[in-house]
Design a protein that fits this description.
This protein is mostly beta strands and 834 residues long. It has five helices and 59 strands. The radius of gyration is 69 Å and the shape is elongated. 25% of the residues are buried. The C terminus is likely disordered.
């Protein structure tokens, strides 16, 4: 037996303006079995050029071994003709990334103006007579409708669909109800074809009823062991087959449980099964608990499992429960999840509160953290605060209490409890210190990643751990805190209230059996920022010919957004704008700084704060015109003269206001001689007044009188007393007589005539009695209308014996402002002369 080969030849008629000829475009050999010679054979070929565009012919011949027959006559298909333009093929489906040929056939006498694909002008090729062709490369799939192709006018054209052949994969078959098979697969990329040209599926030769999803159902017996399952996918662009082999008894995926009910009283969950076949299956069920977004998965197993009891649930919490199950033996996949059921557990007593304190002067604020939902175990009704013998109730949401009468003795023991419908929590105890905490110097710290990595030295008194609290340094607030277990000396401090560029104070307390003790303290920024505050009161002052004193006020601490490590002074010579000099001040305290070696010119000064993140806090510029040193003398002189004038004026005012005191101390007033009348005793029967003098034994008496006065002085010795009487006798006689009388008497008195005292010209200028150990001075003034006075000055109460005087001289003295003239005489041999 041999094989007969048939040869097929296809020709396309190609005509030109000059000649016409046939062009072979396809030749193919087909083998035919001799046993099948009685059958009718079919052969197909798709032309690249649509058959309507031009005539196509086909012929065939046979060959057996070395014998080849003649060609059969040509069988031709004539191209289309029309009176108006037409585009072929019509409504074709083309695969993406392929070349496709369109042709335009014009009516008699018509000219081709253009051919467009998706409104894009294309190159064309003349085929024959009124037939033209263009080749398009399909780069992208068509939209949900199609792409228009036309020539000369949009009215004459066609529509083409561009898409993909089926791309399905991963066929899997299983059973859900133990009575049918369910196969599903991945559809792959979309074909971009319309509904009439979408992919059709067949499972083991039977059409799948559902055309919109990637699964297919068929009723079968599941106890037939392992079987092959074939899925055929077909669309106008191609056909695809997927295969799977499975024993359905080992591929059971259970349906979702129904009527799931959960109870919060005993935390139990019940459900039902739709299929009775499930009641005899050994299954494992998964219970999912959802509580405030937290998922808890729990597994339970049993035959026909329909209820479970949940343990370890938080009191007074709301849960949502879902259930799914699968076969425990030959486990294939988890079944579908049931619908969720929500329930709430019963309340329980709250957990103990986290209590702390904040001391402000003589007041103490007791603070506690509000309990979370998992800690409160129900709705908190109130808080009970007890200290000493006092007790008070605080209602939520308040979580603090002020104690203003801190004891001066031992610190208060404060107890705080929380209460709900199930009861009260265990008491939380804190002891307020008897005295305020001693201040601690703060160490600088810089945060990272929105918090602080804090470490400290161990305290020997920290028997129950440490407490770290924090608050903005320059803002009044309620502190936040965290407790650290004993033996740990580091903590990561993080808070949602932390802000960048804000300085915080962190205090570390040692937890002791008594009151907490302040152990260490830190200050720092979570993240330092460039200074936003401005340096104030920048001033520049010239000192000398080449020195400038720069002073400023730093950024206030409450406005600082980073630690200031120093200040930088920039100064510019305004006469040379391109010049700039920098002077670094390595101190974080503002103040003054001398800049030396600065030539005389005009300058502009700016000060900036230096931080770890850069410079900032620029001051307003200040300008200074430096002058030569000689120009500084004029202000100095003016200031000196002004100071002297002010000082002189001040002294003058003080002297004027205190002139009496100045006069008494620098130039005291000399008192007038005063003669008091009570010193005189009237002499009865004579009309005279007598001045009594205590008897004594003078050694010498000198009497000085004015020679011009009209009265006279006489000495009268009466009753053992000496008296000096003013008469009109001459002074020398009186002087001699009085000296002679005093040399013999031991007492005496002066007498004055009444008419003599009344005379305006009568004066007794003075009497001097002198002895080396005894002095007596008498001053008198007798004027009209004036009183008479006598003031003695005695150094001793005993008078020595008088000594004889041989000679006496008189010395006149200038008259003072009252007309009083003092005269004295000195003997050549008297002690007064010496």
């Amino acid at each position: 037996m041999g094989v007969t080969s048939c040869w097929f030849s296809c020709y396309g008629l190609h005509c030109s303006s000059q000649a016409s000829k046939n062009k072979m475009v396809k030749m193919e050999a087909v083998d035919v079995r001799p046993t099948l010679t009685s059958r009718k054979y079919h052969w197909s070929w798709t032309s690249a050029l649509p058959l309507e565009c031009t005539s196509h012919s086909v012929r065939l011949r046979s060959r057996y071994q070395n014998y080849t027959s003649q060609w059969s006559p040509l069988q031709s298909i004539t191209g289309s003709a029309s009176s108006h333009p037409q585009v072929f093929p019509r409504s074709s489906v083309v695969q993406v990334d392929s070349n496709f040929t369109f042709c335009c056939i014009l009516g008699p006498g018509q000219r081709l103006e253009y051919m467009k694909y998706n409104n894009i002008l294309m190159n064309t090729t003349h085929i024959i007579d009124q037939s033209y062709a263009m080749v398009v490369h399909m780069q992208s799939p068509s939209p949900p409708s199609c792409i228009n192709v036309y020539c000369n006018s949009p009215l004459y054209g066609t529509c083409v669909y561009v898409g993909y052949p089926p791309g399905d994969r991963n066929l899997v078959c299983e059973t859900r109800d133990l009575e049918s098979v369910e196969c599903h697969w991945d559809t792959g990329r979309p074909t971009n074809l319309t509904k009439q040209r979408m992919t059709r599926y067949h499972l083991n030769g039977r059409a799948c009823p559902n055309r919109t999803v990637s699964n297919c159902y068929q009723t079968v017996r599941v106890d037939q062991g392992e079987r092959n399952w074939t899925l055929t996918a077909r669309n106008p662009l191609g056909t695809l087959e997927l295969r799977d082999t499975a024993d359905l008894k080992k591929r059971v995926r259970l349906l979702a449980p129904m009527e799931v009910v959960a109870s919060g009283v005993n935390a139990s969950v019940q459900w039902q099964w739709e299929r009775p076949q499930y009641h005899i299956l050994l299954m494992v069920c998964q219970v999912q608990l959802n509580h405030s977004g937290h998922i808890d998965m729990r597994n339970y197993s049993g035959i026909g499992l329909r209820s479970v009891v949940l343990h370890g649930l938080a009191p007074a919490q709301t849960y949502t429960v879902q259930v799914c199950c699968g076969l425990k033996q030959h486990f294939w996949k988890w079944g579908d999840w049931s619908e969720g059921s929500t329930f709430k557990t019963e309340e329980d007593i709250p957990e103990a509160l986290d209590v702390w304190m904040q001391i402000e002067g003589n007041q103490t604020i007791i603070l506690w953290k509000p309990l979370t939902v998992n800690q409160s175990h129900g709705q908190i009704k109130d808080y009970e605060v007890t200290w000493g013998r006092q007790e008070t109730i605080v209602h939520p949401p308040q979580n603090d209490f002020l104690i203003s009468d801190r004891s001066t003795g031992e610190g208060h023991r404060v107890t705080v409890t929380a209460k709900n419908s199930a009861g009260s929590s265990l008491p939380s105890i804190i002891i307020i210190p008897r005295l305020p905490h001693r201040s601690k110097s703060s160490m600088k710290i810089v945060g990272s990643d929105g918090g602080f990595n804090l470490s400290w030295s161990a305290s020997p008194n920290a028997s129950c751990g440490y407490v770290v609290d924090w608050c903005p340094t320059h803002t009044k607030c309620r502190v936040e805190w965290v407790k650290v277990p004993a033996g740990i000396t580091r903590a990561r401090i993080h808070s949602a209230s932390f802000e960048e560029g804000v300085r915080y104070t962190l205090s570390i307390f040692a937890c002791t059996p008594g009151a907490p003790e302040l152990w260490e303290r830190r200050e720092g920024y979570v993240k330092e920022c460039l200074p936003k505050g401005q340096i104030q009161r920048l001033a520049a002052e010239q000192h000398g010919s080449d020195t400038v004193l720069i002073s400023w006020t730093g950024i206030p601490p409450e406005n600082q957004t980073a630690f200031i490590h120093g200040y930088i002074i920039y100064y510019f010579d305004t006469s040379h704008p391109s010049s700039m000099r920098i002077f670094n001040v390595t101190t974080d305290e503002p103040g003054a700084k001398n800049l030396t070696g600065i030539p005389v010119s005009s300058y502009r000064f700016i000060v900036k704060a230096l931080t770890s993140v850069g410079e900032g806090g620029d001051s307003s510029p200040v300008f200074l015109q430096m002058n030569p040193q000689t120009d500084q003398l004029i202000p100095v002189i003016i200031i000196s003269l002004g100071s002297a004038a002010c000082l002189l004026t001040l002294v003058t005012i003080l002297c004027y206001r205190n002139w009496k005191c100045v006069k008494e101390n620098l130039h005291p007033e000399i008192p007038k001689p005063v003669w008091k009348e009570e010193w005189l005793t009237p002499l009865q029967g004579t009309g005279r007044q007598i001045l009594y003098v205590d008897p004594c034994q003078p050694s010498e008496i000198d009497i000085v009188c004015n020679r011009e006065q009209s009265g006279e002085a006489v000495l009268d010795n009466n009753a053992g007393k000496g008296a000096l009487t003013n008469t009109n006798s001459d002074v020398p006689a009186l002087h001699g007589y009085y000296n002679q009388l005093l040399s013999k008497t031991t007492s005496g008195h002066f007498t004055f005539s009444p008419h003599t005292m009344g005379s305006p010209s009568s004066q007794l200028s003075g009497t001097v009695i002198q002895n080396p150990s005894y002095n007596l001075e008498v001053q008198a003034s007798l004027d009209m209308g004036q009183s008479v006075g006598y003031e003695p000055d005695m150094n001793s109460f005993s008078c020595p014996n008088p000594e004889p005087h041989n000679a006496m001289s008189y010395v006149p003295v200038e008259t003072d402002s009252w007309g009083y003239k003092f005269q004295y005489h000195i003997e050549d041999s008297s002690p007064l002369q010496e």
